[in-house]
Amino acid sequence: MRPKISPSLLSANFAHLGRDVEMLNSSEADWIHLDIMDGVFVPNISFGFPVLKYVAELARKPLDVHLMIVNPEKFIGEVKKLGAHVMNVHYEVCPHLHRVVQEIREAGMEPAVTINPATPVCLLRDIIQDVYMVLVMSVNPGFGGQAFIGHSVEKVKELRRLIDETGSQALIEVDGGVDLDTGARLVAAGADILVSGSTIFKAPDPTEMIRQMKQL
Ligand code: DX5
Ligand code: ZN
After folding, report:
1. How far is the CA of 112 from the centre of ligand 2 (A)?
2. Residue numbers annotated as active site
3. Which residues does a 6 A CB cutoff place in the pocket of ligand 1?
């Protein structure tokens, strides 16, 4: 099964966002990954809803919104207004994850739970039936262009086993340090969707890089 590719706009040129969104529209990208940061949960701030409103108007691919913020449930309405397909919240900031997942679904979006590199897959056992997708972070969230954490491949295999064992339909997405080499290893381990930022946007021909990732 060929992976879906969800290019991360975090590595785009923010002075030419419209141009970069149009590039993704006309590429083979399946989704567009939007990273929202708060400077609290992660040590960085990216873009917020006033900027994403215009991105969403221009985008012709489903939006995969990754919230790296505390209290993500406060923004379900804002994410919905963007017309998002998937809303990813971090396991580490949701003591009432089951409730948040239901609220995202009730708002008409697909709920996804994201785990940091140090958060074990086994903690997902009691939520895996309720989520559309699990996003495995293969770097510590907050920045693009970081080195891939090799152990993530094992985590994807373990997650695939958990999904098969429980009969869950959850998809597996991986985010951080994904290039053609790490991407191939992740797909072999069972990943369905690859997020990639710097590898795509720093490539001489980003459209061609997306095309090559789709072949993995
Ligand atoms: C990091 C973000 C990623 C980031 C990935 O916190 O969640 O989506 O854009 O960037 P690369 O692909 O450069 O590691
Ligand atoms: Zn992300």
Report:
1. 12
2. 35, 175
3. 8, 10-11, 33, 35, 66, 139, 141-146, 175-178, 195-199
